[in-house]
Design a protein that fits this description.
104 residues, mainly beta, four-stranded antiparallel beta sheet, 12% helix, 36% strand, extended
């Protein structure tokens, strides 16, 4: 199966600043972990630097007030193919071991 690889960057400075300002994209779960909601999309017009972009995902009632905050972008790389399974060697395979040979 081919896997799509994406390389990109996220601006932690902008994320930290918006978190401290109380941006609605951040929420705290019952377990104490903090989450950031984002919107991501593949750009229509790709250039040499970015194929996709990430933006903070404001709550619907705060979208206009908070505006669009871009926090990252990246490049989609060629698919990575999974290598074929290795051939068994002359010593044999795991299935060649008899259960009676095990020490337990």
């Amino acid at each position: 199966m081919e896997k799509i690889r994406i390389n990109g960057s996220i601006c932690l400075s902008d994320i930290s600043e918006k978190f401290k300002q109380g941006h609605s994209a951040f929420s705290k779960a019952a377990n104490g972990k903090i989450y950031m909601n984002f919107t991501g999309w593949v750009n229509d017009c790709n250039d040499d630097f970015k194929d996709f972009s990430l933006q903070l995902n404001s709550k619907q009632d705060k979208q206009e007030a908070e505006g669009k905050i871009y926090v990252g972008n990246g490049k989609i790389k060629p698919p990575v193919t999974t290598p074929a399974p290795a051939q068994s060697n002359a010593a044999g395979t795991v299935t060649d071991i008899v259960a009676d040979d095990l020490p337990f």
